[in-house]
Amino acid sequence: MLINQTQQKLQTLGLSGMARAFEQLFQRPESQNISFEDCVGLLADAEVCDRDNRRIARFLKSAKLRHGRATLADIDYQPSRKLNQPLIMSLSDCGWIDRRQNLILTGATGTGKSWMACAFGLQACRNGFSVYYTTATQLYEDLAHAQADGSLPKLRRLLIKTRLLILDDLGIGGVDTALGPVLLDIIDQQTLQGALLITSQYPTSKWYDLFNDPTVADAILDRIVHRSHSLQLQGESMRKLKANEL
After folding, report:
1. Per residue, what are the HEC states of the chain?
2. pLDDT per position as a tens digit, 88-117
3. Which CATH architecture has domain 64-245?
4. Which keywords annotate this record (predicted)?
């Protein structure tokens, strides 16, 4: 009875991980031989692990990753892709996000840019960073709608506070002149506390032409390109290869 009461108190205090571990601990015969210090340590570890898992789950839900199951461990390093594996491994600790650096993935359609971006996004969530995924086209539409209905401040706050903002398929359609200053402001503020991950079919040397306002183009590219890591994806279309395997 005392065990049940203790479990209920732990649940009331919001210590659900500790409550489950407490129940499991008393179901194990060997628990009688565990010292008080070790028992407290096990319960504390269980609570920390439970909170970490719940935080990761929240981050993943908010991230809205297009490929939610993509992981860096599943990257295909076949020679034709010419991937820089040492660089990818060095980026897997997500220290570049803490250092407010950016990651640029370029390559032809189908080479796996979006998938790899989501794999880095998942890794960032696991490392305790908030993530938000959107395509460039969707972001432009969201910004235009937000300007029209007055919700731009709310959307701006969401994007700015995100530690890793993933902008997929930059270059599909140009940036409207009216949106340029808004996009610049968001990128300027977001990169003060986080990082950008951008994918594009076009090399960075072609990005300038995407903006109708050269002043805005200079300012945005200066904030993105000059402190970024770059990975170029090559080889055959991964979509075609997977389709041929079916």
Report:
1. CHHHHHHHHHHHCCCHHHHHHHHHHHHCHHHHHCCHHHHHHHHHHHHHHHHHHHHHHHHHHHHCCCCCCCCHHHCCCCHHHCCCHHHHHHHCCCHHHHCCCEEEEEECCCCCHHHHHHHHHHHHHHCCCCEEEEEHHHHHHHHHHHHHHCCHHHHHHHHHHCCEEEEEEECCCCECCCCHHHHHHHHHHHCCCCEEEEEECCCHHHHHHHECCHHHHHHHHHHHHHHEEEEEECCCCHHHHHHHHC
2. 999 999 999 999 999 999 999 989 999 999
3. 3-Layer(aba) Sandwich (3.40)
4. ATP-binding, Nucleotide-binding
